[in-house]
Design goal:
With 210 residues, the chain is an alpha+beta fold.
């Protein structure tokens, strides 16, 4: 799992689906790899539109941010019977950067709290069992600036870490600017090495990339 102490995490490679039926109710589960709250909201909106006639669209998501963020939503089901068991499967499979939505079509028979927990848990598990779980690396995108004459030395540091920068841009003052993506665990080490060449170099963190 991802935490502040590691830069690797497990997620799913592509979207997957699962299905659970109980006493006429259908629980359609959809799992998506996501990297932001915006992606989470977009996928939920798509499912709400596609399955507009469903009774509930319950979900849980988890992102490998620092600190980690997550949320579970029962969407009208009794508290703790839908979002929590969906999220429980995310934890059980040790995955993050993931959204699972379970769409319920009511079959006319009440399942009770125990039945609902089982249904949402099983549907979410089916979606995860049908997915391919992979390990990914967390990186941080940085903008770095330094004088033109230090370009060769900086490029050597990046090459030693297999970092491919964006095309460098030079201004009239002879300052080079480029974007680099650094593995999270290497950030401090690389910044220190560049500072040894040019102590006044400028670095700006853009975002954490998953």
């Amino acid at each position: 799992m991802s935490s502040e102490n590691t830069d690797t995490y497990k997620t799913i490679s592509t979207s997957s689906e699962g299905l659970y039926k109980e006493k006429g109710s259908k629980f359609l589960a959809f799992a998506f790899p996501v990297n932001s709250k915006e992606e989470v909201e977009a996928n939920i909106a798509i499912l709400r539109k596609k399955y507009f006639d469903a009774r509930h669209h319950c979900y849980a998501w988890r992102l490998a941010t620092t600190p980690e963020t997550f949320r579970a939503n029962d969407d009208g089901e009794p508290s703790g019977t839908a979002g929590k068991p969906i999220y429980g499967q995310i934890i059980s499979h040790e995955v993050t950067n993931i959204l699972i939505v379970v769409v319920r079509y009511f079959g006319g028979v009440l399942l009770g709290t125990g039945g609902l927990v089982k249904a949402y848990k099983t549907a979410a598990a089916e979606a995860l069992n049908n997915a391919t779980i992979i390990e990914k690396i967390r990186t941080v995108s940085h903008t770095i600036k330094f004088p033109y004459e230090k370009t060769s030395a900086v490029m050597k540091i990046l090459k030693d870490k297999n970092i491919t920068p964006s095309s460098p841009k030079y201004n009239e003052a002879g300052i080079c600017e480029m974007e680099i993506e650094i593995r999270l665990r290497d950030v401090d080490r690389i910044k220190t090495k560049i500072a040894e060449i040019y102590p006044d170099f400028v670095t700006k963190t853009s975002k954490t990339v998953s």
